[in-house]
Design brief:
The complex is a heterodimer.
Chain A: H1 6-12, H2 17-30, H3 37-41, H4 56-66, E1 72-76, H5 82-88, H6 93-102, E2 105-108, H7 116-129, E3 135-139, E4 142-143, E5 152-153, E6 156-157, H8 158-167, E7 171-175, H9 176-181, E8 194-195, H10 197-200, E9 206-209, H11 216-229, H12 242-245, H13 256-260, H14 271-274, H15 293-296, H16 339-370
Parallel strand pairs in A: 1-2, 1-3, 3-7, 7-9
Antiparallel strand pairs in A: 4-8, 5-6
Chain B: H1 3-11, H2 13-34, H3 49-63, H4 72-76, H5 78-97, H6 99-109, H7 118-141, H8 143-148, H9 151-171, H10 178-195, H11 203-220
Helix pairs in contact in B: 1-2, 1-10, 2-10, 3-11, 5-6, 5-7, 7-9, 9-10
Classes of the chains: A alpha/beta, B mainly alpha.
Chain lengths: 371, 225
């Protein structure tokens, strides 16, 4: 029932005042909210007038107390449900709880208890009731080939479902690389002609929470941002929230000093790998991958791929499946000419060169003979 | 078109084309010169021509660079000798012993090698860039060089300088996002690769052939009797 405030819903569920304050602070942190200038400067707070509302968590607190609950419709197309899995096992239980339980997920194929016509009907009703207010979350790419026949739900194509749900959405959040940029289904040769949401829906704001899967805090944090402020966070040129995608994995990597020092692991079981050296030579895509893996990390901040010894695959970037081999150096060219192609180029050059030389020689001889 | 897409183009199809064009062009130019043939010995030489070739390369790489003052080429214009020498050394260190470049070679030829730490490569590239600027200034003010320098010389300078500059900017994250800097670097490299067979920069291949020809002439040491 989105008519009640977020706070009321939480209080009804038995959330204490202390936990409510904690949640506000957590949300402020998850959304990367800046401190007021005085606090950020490091000067003593006594210099300024301490305003209760000036602190970020208090801004959140106020919003939670006054804002109405936000209806969310979550669609899944050509996906693996990995992003839903990630959100449902998020490191921030209260944040996940906020999104999954408090914000009113009106429709979610995987999480809904109901199935079949009943749940489809519930979705239709929700879209009608909250037209222009709900957040549409999309997981998975949309196939366009063969009139969208590769992904049909309830007898209708993914494209139809998306267009219908997008028409009444206040904003769209594309979760995961598939929904954002096409992901794995779009990998060459892209048999289903898979597309990301923002390639299809151009008349609504689309936020891309890319990743494979998307970092759950980025998903829930962005939804919470909209729920609390009624606006979308600041986005980069690929429509990703700058809070989570403002820095590269390389920028924040704990192995970065080894990169600078030229200490690299050359294989997965050598001395360098055991010493935790940089994985750049093993194909790490960290330098061109914008994501918060190295700072937020996974599993309650326990680790992330590079920390546990695997190079970054660049999963938050468009076309990462076709962006060169996963274990090929970042600087290596994407297409390596075959021996036949090199042979053809050199052979053709040599043949033409010899031909040119012969022509020159015969001209020279003719000139000599003629003079 | 965003930087990522430009980068994908510059690392993908554009690099592919530039590489094959360079190989094609170099093969064309090399064979069009070699196929003209060279004069044969009318009498047997006294010395060994093979030895002459080996000695000339050993001198060029292992002796003269370390005692340059015995050569007139150094004494008459030390600036060009030192500037040019440092520039070539810088290119060698950066392109062969820099980690990212080694990985390019590895992806193309199938094997890699140990590389130098980033700060050393970084300083060498800075030295190379400074050397190029000094050499350009010298070319603009030197009375003889001024006379013999045309557009070809300045284009050659520019097309070599740009990859060095963009590479340095990329390492230091100056002037944009990493992938934008990377895209710029790759485009300038691709343009350079296309320009190589069309210009005198192809000397990095021709040098070894011309030096070998000179070496065997030096090795003859007169006529066998």
């Amino acid at each position: 029932m989105p008519e009640e405030t977020i706070k009321k819903n939480l209080v009804d569920k038995g959330v204490s005042r202390r936990d409510f304050l904690k949640l506000s602070g957590l949300l402020a942190a998850a959304m990367g909210m800046q401190l007021p200038p005085l606090q950020e400067s490091g000067l003593p707070m006594s210099l300024g007038t301490p305003v209760r509302g000036a602190q970020t968590e208090h801004a959140i607190l106020h919003a939670l107390e006054t804002k109405m609950r936000l209806p969310v419709i979550w669609l899944e197309f050509q996906d693996c449900t990995g992003c839903t899995e990630a959100v449902s096992r998020s490191v921030s239980p209260s944040l996940t709880n906020l999104v999954l339980n408090t914000l009113t997920i009106e429709y979610h194929e995987t999480l809904s208890a109901a199935a079949g016509y009943q749940v489809e009907q519930a979705k239709q009703e929700a879209m009608k009731k909250y037209a222009g207010q709900y957040i549409l979350v999309v997981e998975g790419s949309i196939p366009l080939a063969n009139d969208g026949a590769y992904c049909v739900i309830g007898g209708r194509t993914a494209l139809e479902h998306l267009k219908e749900a997008a028409s009444g959405a206040a904003a769209i959040i594309a979760v995961g690389n598939c929904a954002a940029y096409g992901g794995l289904p779009k990998a060459k040769p892209n048999p289903t002609d898979a597309k990301g949401v923002w390639e299809i829906i151009t008349d609504k704001p689309v936020v891309n929470i890319s990743g494979c899967p998307a970092i759950p805090e980025a998903t829930t944090g962005t939804i919470a941002h909209f729920a609390i402020f009624g606006t979308l966070p600041e986005l980069d040129n690929l429509n990703r929230p700058k809070t989570f995608y403002g820095k590269t994995v390389h920028d924040r990597c704990l192995r970065r000093p080894f990169y600078e020092a030229g200490k690299f692991a050359l294989s997965f079981d050598d001395e360098g790998a055991r010493e935790g050296h940089c994985l750049y030579k093993l194909g790490c895509k960290g330098p061109t991958t914008y994501n918060a893996c190295a700072s937020i990390k996974w599993d309650q901040g326990l680790s992330f791929p590079v920390q546990s010894g695997h190079p970054c695959l660049g999963c938050s970037e468009p076309n990462f499946w076709d962006g060169g081999g996963f274990y090929q150096g970042q600087s290596a060219p994407l297409d390596r000419p075959t021996v036949a192609a090199v042979g053809a180029a050199v052979g053709a050059g040599a043949a033409l060169g010899i031909g040119a030389a012969l022509v020159n020689q015969s001209r020279k001889k003719a000139k000599k003979g003629g003079s | 078109m965003n930087s990522q897409a430009v980068l994908e183009f510059a690392r993908g199809p554009f690099f592919y084309f530039a590489l094959l064009f360079m190989l094609f062009g170099l093969a064309f130019r090399l064979f069009s010169v070699i196929s003209l043939g060279w004069s044969r010995d009318r009498v047997s030489p006294m010395g060994s021509k093979t030895k002459g070739v080996v000695v000339t390369f050993l001198k060029a790489f292992l002796i003269w660079p370390f005692i340059p003052w015995v050569k007139n080429t150094f004494n008459r214009n030390p600036l060009i000798y030192i500037g040019g020498g440092l520039f070539h050394l810088s290119l060698f260190v950066v392109i062969i012993l820099g980690t990212p470049h080694m990985l390019v070679w590895k992806s193309l030829i199938g094997f890699g090698w140990a590389t130098l730490p980033l700060p050393i490569v970084d300083w060498m590239s800075a030295i190379g860039i400074i050397a190029m600027v000094i050499l350009l200034i010298n070319r603009r003010i030197h009375p003889v060089l001024k006379l013999i320098s045309g557009p070809a010389e300045f284009f050659a300078w520019l097309f070599v300088f740009l990859p060095m500059l963009t590479g340095y900017m990329m390492t230091h994250h100056i002037g944009g996002s990493y992938e934008a800097l990377y895209a710029r670097h790759m485009i300038t490299v691709d343009v350079l690769m296309i320009w190589i067979p069309l210009s005198r920069i192809s000397h990095f291949v021709f040098y070894f052939f011309s030096r070998a020809i000179h070496g065997q002439e030096f090795g003859k040491r007169g006529v066998a009797v």
